[in-house]
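Priority: low. Protein: Transcriptional regulator with XRE-family HTH domain. Input follows.
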Amino acid sequence: MDPAEPVSRALAANLRAARQARGWRLEDLAERSGVSRGMLQQIETGRTNPSIATLARICSTLGVSIGRLVEPPEELGHVVRAAEVAVRPAGAGGQARLLINDGRAELWDFLIAPGEELRSPGHPEGTGELLHVNTGELAVTVGGAAFSLGPGDALRMRGDRPHVYANPGAEPVRFTMTVIYGGRQDPRYAV
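Result:
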């Protein structure tokens, strides 16, 4: 494979996306940038690589950096496969799975058995949590305030205070939670 091929593919896709996000046709970008429609079409289909000068004119017109237009797709998103997710015990018969994180936020999937509870001393200052109950009943206590949630309910809460997640029901409770760090990330789950 030509080493420039991944860059050409990224440039083609990113240029097309940037142009379309502005509602511009190839003709519109050509007129604004001074780069011919034919050249733009060849770039967007990956049939040619523009000179730096041509790329600079296109980027200036779109208001984006050259780096942004040649950014490979893997920099735009990252997939974590189910088999890669670590499962941690959560009480007797429960589990906590850190599905994905990016250094600023974490997405968790929890399963808590009936009668079980999970306690947290609180995360770093400025941390918040968003919870969504999928199945079962969830009782949450944070900083002395109590919340009862059922299937489909969601809660936004402070994560920087001691908190408890409890299952008061007769069935397991499954919920997803996003932890959003306002300052530094909890070192226990750092990327």
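The mean pLDDT is 88. The chain has two domains: 5-76, 82-189.
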